[in-house]
Amino acid sequence: MSSLLKLENITKVYRTNAGEYVALKNLNFTLERGEMIAIVGASGSGKSTLMNVLGFLDHCTTGKYLFSGRDVSHLEDAELATIRNKKIGFVFQSFFLLPRLNALQNVMLPLLYRGTPTDTAKQKSLDMLSKVNMQKFVDHKPNQLSGGQQQRVAIARALVGDAEVILADEPTGSLDSKTSHDVMQLFIDLNQQENRTIVVITHDNKISHHCPRVVTLHDGNVVEG
Ligand SMILES: Nc1ncnc2c1ncn2[C@@H]1O[C@H](COP(=O)(O)OP(=O)(O)O)[C@@H](O)[C@H]1O
Ligand SMILES: [Mg+2]
Fold first, then answer.
1. N or C end: fewer C-beta atoms under 10 angstroms in the chain?
2. CATH of domain 34-62+74-224
3. What is Dmax (Cα atoms) for the chain?
4. Domain limits of the chain?
5. Residue 33 pLDDT
6. How many angstroms separate the alpha carbon of residue 47 from the centre of ligand 2?
7. Predicted confidence (pLDDT) per residue in 121-148, tens digit
8. What is the Å distance from ligand 1's center to 148 Cα?
9. pTM above 0.90, yes or no
10. Which residues line ligand 1 (CB under 6 A)?
11. Best of 49, 199, 201, 218 to mutate for ligand 1, by most ligand atoms within 8 A of CB?
């Protein structure tokens, strides 16, 4: 079977008024189903750029991207959005929960977007909130939850649609060290118990050493892992 994600000779060039900036340089990267990896590197090394390319949030400039064996390098944005909605779950440093919706409604949203009947969406979301140990807080709004609890809701939202891969960009960046550890343990449990494929971007060694594979970026290229 083909790898879940495969980047071949990827380059990403940002064009700004100040000129061109090469953020990814001939980068090669492969991720298998069921892997859990950390992507580490100094600030500015290209971690978020890589995640944006992997998650179809941005196009690479040159190179080839195979998703589940399919070349997606030249697909239109609308088609990429459809694949992204079904197959990729995102978790960000600042959670990005909708403030007016409670935890349950936030988790249901991606399912409702794709036309899942409300009853089914509700049941799946309640199950997912239980898995992340948030069943007691389903009717709480984000401002009634701690940072760690908000991140658990965001993880439930990322996972509820049976995404093939979770891309988490600095998911513990706003959390204290105990809460960061708990969130990482949750990712490990989801990886080991449900075989979820998880990519965690971090600049924190204490976070990355939880992961069996660590990929190090330096100046837009993989130097290790
Ligand atoms: N939209 C953009 N336009 C121009 N340059 C950018 C843009 N996004 C990122 N960069 C530059 O690309 C490099 C890599 O950025 P980024 O991927 O955000 O790194 P990291 O997440 O590792 O800190 C940095 O030098 C950054 O300034
Ligand atoms: Mg970043």
1. N
2. 3.40.50.300
3. 52
4. 34-62+74-224
5. 96
6. 5
7. 999 999 999 999 999 999 999 999 999 9
8. 27
9. yes
10. 14, 16, 21, 23, 41, 43-49
11. 49
